[in-house]
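Reply to dn_fold:

You asked what the input looked like. This is it:
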Amino acid sequence: MEQSQNYTGQNYQGQNNSGQNLGVAALITAIITFVLAVIPCVGLIAIIPGIIAIILASVGLSQAARINAPRGVLVAGLIIAIIASMISLSQVFVATKIAQKADKWPEGIQNVINDVQDNVVKQIEDANVSIKVESDGNKVEINTNSDKKDREQKLEDLEGVKTQKTDTLPKKNETLPKKK
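and this is what came back:
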């Protein structure tokens, strides 16, 4: 059984293995890089294995060129590594743009929180509540509704006196007058 030899007389199969091993390593690293690169936020760190895969494929291609060995796996690893690295770099650029615009977010978030708070307060003020408690044959029922005029009328009926029409509580951004 005779081993194949290249034009320099060196063992073709022995040299082929080192280039092909680098090709397999580059391809596996490139695939891992691609998987990491397409995951949001994780893709930011995929640039590191991408660079490693590009270096492995480049070294393997140079070795394969010297001995005229097959380059299919090496080229596939290099292409996938470059594409995955580009995807990862695009995520870095997107994250940078988001970080640049993040200084305007707190104001917008505060506006949303204020709107939600105002809506919740309004809904609580407009709520009708009915509470029924029964214990040892005694029943207590409390009904409330949000109508301010109904509450004022009930207070007048309970007190037997006309209530003041203006509120004594300060409204938003208003203070009570100081007593002298």
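The chain is about 60% helix and 10% strand.
Hope that clears it up.
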